[in-house]
Amino acid sequence: MQTTWFTLWLSLRRFIRSEAMEKFLIISIGAVLGANARYWLGGWAAEKFGTTFPYGTLIINLTGSFILGLFITLITDRFLVDPNWRLLVAIGFLGSYTTFSSYTYESVNLILTGQPWLGLLDLFGSSFLGGLAAVAGVLLARAL
């Protein structure tokens, strides 16, 4: 039994020191920062503009889309950077700040790379179907 625990401990130690754990921690740091930025900005917008319209969500979705488009373009077309920056900013920070940014960037990328119908299908399909999914979730919750 002691050998099994020792083997488990050695495996865990290797994992903690592994590249997978490094990536996990980089994404996690970005996610913590992004979630807190979303919380702070949403609260600020509610105080500044009121809560009759989801201004915070709109601001977050627009700024997230802008930042993701800018960042991905810079690191793929302009600068050579460590791949961990993509994990930290695009996946970690923006992934928790907003998932809307990924959806819009991917749709626009399809359009700009010669697949306009797929890009438009993604843009409008995700919006429309996402709206339907939200309605279905609300209706299900109310029915329970």
Plain-language structure description:
- The chain is an all-alpha fold.
- The chain has one domain (22-143).
- It has 6 helices and no strands.
- It has helices spanning 2-16, 19-49, 55-78, 84-97, 100-112, 116-143.
- Helix 5 (100-112) packs antiparallel against helix 6.
- The longest helix has 31 residues, at 19-49.
- The N and C termini lie far apart (48 Å).
- The mean pLDDT is 87.
Present the secondary structure layout.
Blueprint: H1 2-16, H2 19-49, H3 55-78, H4 84-97, H5 100-112, H6 116-143
Helix pairs in contact: 2-3, 2-4, 3-4, 3-5, 5-6
Largest sheet: none
Secondary-structure-based class equals mainly alpha
Overall spatial form: extended
Tell me what portion of residues adopts beta-strand conformation.
Answer: under 5%
Query: In angstroms, what is the radius of gyration?
Result: 20 Å
Features:
single chain; 144 residues; mainly alpha; extended
